[in-house]
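agent> Task received from the user: take the single chain below, predict its 3D structure, and emit structure tokens. No templates, no multimer pairing.
agent> Plan: (1) validate residues, (2) run structure prediction, (3) serialize to tokens, (4) report one or two observations.
agent> Step 1 OK, no nonstandard residues flagged.
tool_call: predict_structure(input=
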Amino acid sequence: MVNTTQVPLFVPAMRPERFTKAASSGGDAIILDLEDSVAPADKDAARANVDGSFTDLPVILRINAVGTPWFVDDVRALKDRGFSAVMLPKSENPDDIKQITEQVPDLPIIALVETAKGLGRARDIAAAPAVTRLAFGSVDFSADLGCEHKRDALLLARSELVLASRIAGISAPLDGVTVEVADPSVSGRDAEHARALGMTGKMCIHPSQISKVKHAFMPSDVEVQWAQRVLKAAEGAVMIDGEMVDEPVRIRARAILAAKFTDAE
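)
tool_result: status=success, residues=265
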């Protein structure tokens, strides 16, 4: 189930009154957050709030990173609470993943890559047992590198996560959040960029972003019509709309139609 999630919504674990409302906001999953949105003094109280039984949607728990004072207790909180997956921030090597699998071996892991060290080991992390997806912590990554949080500056990082995921044979990665919440169209444009690079989802921090992001990952009518023309054409190498079409192009056409029908469901 986690592998098909495209648009999960973050909810602070300190705000349990928001959990049910978040589940009805249109996202594909909920990420209950014990990390960045929770102050150090509130970590224990937030942990006591978390449970995955409030919705039929997948509920992912973002715990605190390996080496923090809260990591061990966060991992204990994963057991028998109905979570669909755990998101590990600051994932930097497969040993980080192992510290979770030793305690909860059957729980899928979304490895959040948000440092230079993590990007350098992204292929090893993607290949680690239990890792079903990578996610890009673009804001933290920018802070770690001292670069701007802009598409051009982060192009290499996003592309590497897509490549690492493909090599490991896991689902394509989730893109990082868009911090602009006043104008949802910004998150939509960011999602279009992520999709163009091969990502298949994007994390959201506000319900208003969800519809724009989901729409961006859905094939357009123009793409669907093109794919249908391609697949109706004769086999072998043929010309369609002035472009040469052969089997690699047909593979893309099939993927577009598969994504369209999946989204429609």
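agent> Step 4: summary for the user.
The longest helix spans residues 247-264.
agent> Done.
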